[in-house]
Amino acid sequence: MFARLALGSCLLCVSLTSARAETFKHRITGLFAPDREADLREALSDIPTIKIIRIDFATAEGTFEYDPKQAFPGAKPQQILERFDSLVKNATHHTFGIKPLSQTPPEKLTPIEIAVVGLDCKACSLGAYEAIFKIDGVERATASFREGRVTALIDPARTNRAALETALVNRGVTLKKSR
Asked: Could you point out which of 11, 86, 101, 124 has its C-alpha 20 to 30 Å from the C-alpha of 77?
């Protein structure tokens, strides 16, 4: 009996140590303000198969450690990012997501800053962020009710300031008048 228990324990040890965690870098959606990093870390702390190594707010990118076979059993390689995105969305009530890294070189991106009024809470900032981040050509975005501004890093070949402003107005965000 003891021999069977010992053999069973050894097999368990082998199966636990044979998992190969790797590091992966992905773009994070929903990271519209620096304090959101803590929200993401808290939500993902309940997912033992995913470990956050680093979050870079400036680039809206994260480095994660996981074993794809353990974290996403049965997933084909092309399904892993989709499943990771779904897992993160479910854990965060759809306020965060995971996307592939941007393919547009940083030197081809243009920063846009739009002054806004009326963003008086985190939820309002999230709404403004979502309005512009979903636009094709927006690579990164932030929204701050404290600073009264929405920023975006855009690919000017795919979008422009007018499209961002229209999306914000359609979402009910008031743009601050220029003097």
From this structure: 11
- Residue 1 above 50 pLDDT? no
Spatial contact of 39 and 107, defined as CB atoms under 8 Å apart: no
Give Cα 57 distance to the centre of its chain.
10
Task: Decide whether 16-99 matches 106-171 in CATH topology.
Answer: yes
Helix runs in the chain, H state only: 2-17, 36-44, 68-71, 80-91, 122-133, 161-170
Q: Which of 40-44, 49-53, 117-121 has the lowest mean pLDDT?
A: 117-121
Question: What is the separation of C-alpha 11 from the centre of its chain, rounded to a whole number of angstroms?
Answer: 37
Cβ neighbors of 151 (< 8 A, separation 6 or more) are 111, 112, 113, 114, 141, 142, 143
Q: At what angle do helices 122-133 and 161-170 cross, to 10 degrees?
A: 130
Interatomic CA distance for residues 69 and 21, integer angstroms: 9
CATH topology of domain 16-99: Alpha-Beta Plaits (3.30.70)
Pairing state between β 138-144 and 149-154: antiparallel
Overall fold of domain 106-171: Alpha-Beta Plaits (3.30.70)
Q: Which residues pair with 117 in a beta bridge?
A: 174
**Helix, strand or coil for residue 131?**
helix
Record the pTM: 0.79
